[in-house]
Fold this sequence. Notes:
Elements: H1 3-10, H2 16-25, H3 27-32, H4 37-52, H5 65-74, E1 101-105, H6 112-118, H7 123-130, E2 147-152, E3 158-166, E4 169-175, E5 181-187, E6 191-200, H8 205-211, H9 216-226, E7 241-251, E8 254-268, E9 271-279, E10 285-288, E11 308-311, E12 314-319, E13 324-328, E14 331-334, E15 340-342, E16 347-354, E17 360-366, E18 370-380, E19 389-390, E20 395-399, E21 409-416, E22 419-421, H10 439-466
Antiparallel strand pairs: 1-2, 2-3, 3-4, 4-5, 6-7, 7-8, 8-9, 9-10, 11-14, 12-13, 14-21, 15-20, 16-17, 16-19, 17-18, 18-20, 18-21, 21-22
Helix pairs in contact: 2-4, 6-7
Bound molecules: zinc ion.
The site of zinc ion has 5 residues, from loops.
Amino acid sequence: MSYLDLDFKSRPTPPPQRLRRRPFKKPQLNRLIRGLTALVTLIGAIYLILSFLPDSSAKIEDSNLKQQRLHYSVLLPSIKEPELETTPLDPVTETLSSTQWITTQIKSGDTLASIFSEAGLSATTTHKVVNLNKQTKKLSKIRPGQSISMLLDDSQQLVSLKYMPDITQTLHIKRLEDESLTSELLHHPLDPIPVFKSGTINSSLFEAAADSEISENIIMELAGIFGWDIDFALDIRKGDQFGIVYNELYKDGEKIRDGRILAAEFINQGKSYQAVYYTDPKGESGYFSPEGKSMRKAFLRSPVKFSRISSRFSRKRWHPVLSKWRSHKGVDYAAPRGTPIRASGDGKIKFKGTKGGYGKTVFIQHGSKYTTVYAHMSRYAKGARKGKSVKQGQVIGYVGSTGLASGPHLHYEFRVNGVHRNPLTVKLPAAEPIDKAYKTHFTREIKTYLSMLNLMSKETIAKLDNE
Ligand SMILES: [Zn+2]
């Protein structure tokens, strides 16, 4: 038995929000509530103390799974969401006692210039502050509802400024003794709390998600994780089930947004697929099966999103521009001019340039065996250069009709050991599995969330059976 199971059983602490609500639910108490506020508080306090005692007899009567899950999740270690780097700032002592902070609430139509002007600060100061560095550029994107605090000296000059671009960051600008300005961006990481949610598909994945109060972002992420194995447009059936362990991000006890998926299971037409999130000691992250296989393939099936296949791979076809029969050794994706073209796999750009009928073309070499070709581009992506490494999904250029093309489309080729293969049907190799050297680390790291997923999934099924 894992420590997890023991932990869950030995600490049956009901979630605090339930404690607060519970006494008020009783009707007789509701009638008396105004007169007995003090008594209720006292009962609440005693209840709270009792229920936090290790062998408390307080029980969760309501088997509402969601609340139990919230409770379980508190016991789990958490994965930190990525943090941005902070630049340390030289400490400056603020010794201006005669000055005070002025806080301005940003209204619609406000700009930093208008706020500064109202505070008596010059346009030169506005310019200096915004253009100080990359961090202070954030002040050119202030939004209604936010606030800016300023500290001015006796001669109405800016000494210090504070602004929160969002709930996780505070920008702090200070004037140094030599009158120059300096800034620092403080990060307030959100507290991740893992939760488990599950659903069963009746009509659509999105409806099932909505029923289980799962956000669209999380469900899109789920579809992305399993998208290599399950075609979410064609393969989904009524009765398919899913379970997701993901972080909810909190600040001062208030949920701010969802974090990433830590582990997930999708049961499609009776077949179960599981994935866990893992970061190796080198810092590379991704989703893997519990056995350590990557959830993704080494290649995207299609290098353009939302496109129509206008010409398939064939031995012989009528070439509309050349007006003769020719074999077509790739796939054409009709897409509007300017549609981003993505590298279908990790690799290195081996050729970038104009190549006869191909027009503007990029060749990517993937290891020693595979080459992919992207032709008729209108232009290349910034930074796409010969010899440069590219990541799967990275934009390398944009759809166009350069070379011999009757209209804007991407001509895509997939070559294995130099031989043209049909990109739509070729068996795509899996992405790299977990490095053997990290296998122990992997098993240890994923244990908690995998156990949680398995335990919760079992519990959900048991609950459904009992209904
Ligand atoms: Zn083509």
